[in-house]
Known about the structure:
Elements: H1 3-33, H2 38-59
Amino acid sequence: MNDLETERARAAAADLIEALCAYEDELSTLSRDLPGVARLRQAVGAALAEACSWISAGDAGDGDALRITH
């Protein structure tokens, strides 16, 4: 992956983080009254963690940073 592709992927990950943060906040509020929402909140949290981890690994120069794990 060249530098331009890496930068585009990093920007996409940052956009994903921004979008998911709003959902995570709302799900946090909802989970107080609807405990069943907690699993969805956990899934959103996992996606946020993965995106943050990728950006951190990418900043460290890890060439395999785009390998998303499930």
